Amino acid sequence: MRLPHRVAFPATLLLVLSSGAVTAADMPPTLGAHVFLGQGEGLGVTPATTAPVDTQVSGSVFIAFNAGYASNDATPRDTYGNRWKPLGRAQTYANYGDRFTVQGYVVTDGKGGASHSVSIDKRGEPRGELSLPFVEVRHGTRVAAVARSYADGALQVASDTVTVNGPATLLAFWWGDGGVKRMTVSPGDGFQLIDAFVTLPDESGVQGAVAWRQVETAGTYRVHWTVAPVQGAALWLIAIQ
Predict the structure, then answer these.
(1) pLDDT per residue as tens, the chain (241 positions)
(2) Residue 76 exposure: Cα atoms within 13 Å on the Cβ side
């Protein structure tokens, strides 16, 4: 008797057949769209609005920052009507009195799509300097940890640490406080620079930089920034899972 031919299936295929297709909910968080708006002193307009980017229709966490005059402290709004919540309290810049602050905001379970932009109404200083980064983390559901600190001037400054229990997208934000208009900013520890406003107009502006790192395992992480010329900085490290 002739035995029937046996077909050998790869183990990965057997896994898919037995457990079903991988859904978006099973995917780890990852970096999505991002953009950085920098308005120079006396050159700004209101509202301050980022260039449009394409984001996911659903299933993203959005992060934005408002850095500039304390009187321009309006909560961000965006083209998809998301509700932005403060990410802790505002940080006042050193050596400028109380005139300048930087404030982070977050949206979880965000709605998005094509031509997605974020705006801030500038009620206090309509033409004043303002910097506004907007970052999407796809397949994220929550902010797992936030570390914020204010570093004194040094060639290299370090953030505080965040701890995660599994795969996460880490976003690092550097906000320099020096009265300089040309600078270099470089993250270490496996982070990659994705956006920066460090070549300022002659009229001045709010310098900032954004970096990210994808981590696959539980652990404790931080980022070191190397900066020239030396200056202090407000630092955020945000873990999204």
Answers:
(1) 333 333 333 333 333 333 444 445 578 999 999 999 999 999 999 999 999 999 999 999 999 999 999 999 999 999 999 999 999 999 999 989 999 999 999 999 999 999 999 999 999 999 999 999 999 999 999 999 999 999 999 999 999 999 999 999 999 999 999 999 999 999 999 999 999 999 999 999 999 999 999 999 999 999 999 999 999 999 999 999 9
(2) 32
CB 65 within 8 A of CB 103: yes
- Could you list the residue range(s) of the whole structural domain that residue 193 is in? 28-240
Cis status, amide bond into 76, omega within 30 of 0: no
Residue count (the chain): 241
CB atoms within 10 A of CB 238: 25
Determine, yes or no, domain membership for 7.
no
Spatial CA neighbour of 186 closest among 147, 222, 228? 228
pTM of the model: 0.90
Spatial CA neighbour of 78 closest among 102, 122, 47, 103: 47
Does residue 74 belong to any structural domain of this protein?
Answer: yes
Neighbours of 241 (CB within 10 A): 20
Distances from the Cα of 148 to the Cαs of 66, 196, 228, in angstroms? 15, 19, 21
Tokens 């403060």 label which residue?
86
> How many structural domains comprise the chain?
1
From the list 114, 230, 215, the residue with the least C-alpha distance to 165 is: 215
> Would you say residue 8 lies in a domain?
no
In a domain, 172, yes or no: yes
